[in-house]
Design goal:
With 122 residues, this protein is an all-alpha fold. Helices cover 72% and strands 0% of the residues.
Length: 122
């Protein structure tokens, strides 16, 4: 159960991270952001990234085996990478209709899933 809680925290963290890192690419579509300069966009992204840390830091602290969590440090990192990919892919499909997924992306995703398998293998 604790592992699922950690995964939920990582997903929430990555939603904010993805919005901070890539959401600003869609700001131009919003009227109230059209005249916002780079510094303004940086501050907005930084503000979003702050919320990422509200979820990421507890996920790592509570999830780390030496703190009583269910995961090793390497397992936490590999989980994080796969969650990043899933959240980013959903974000891209929903907000960037001009981007396409191709067969080589599916192969890369599959290799990351294999990485999770091998990292968690005893």
């Amino acid at each position: 159960m604790k592992g699922l809680y950690i995964i939920v925290l990582l997903v929430l963290s990555n939603v904010f991270m993805t919005l901070a890192w890539y959401g600003h690419l869609k700001f131009r579509d919003l009227k109230w952001f059209e005249n916002l300069g780079l510094i303004g966009i940086i501050f907005i992204s930084w503000g979003l990234a702050l919320f990422e840390y509200f979820f990421q830091v507890p996920a790592n602290k509570l999830g780390y085996k030496e703190n009583g969590g269910p995961f090793t440090l390497l397992q936490l990192k590999v989980l994080q990478e796969v969650i990043i990919l899933i959240v980013f892919t959903i974000f891209m499909i929903v907000f960037f209709k001009n981007e396409t997924l191709r067969w080589n992306h599916a192969v890369g995703f599959g290799l990351l899933v294999l990485a999770v398998y091998f990292i968690f293998r005893k």
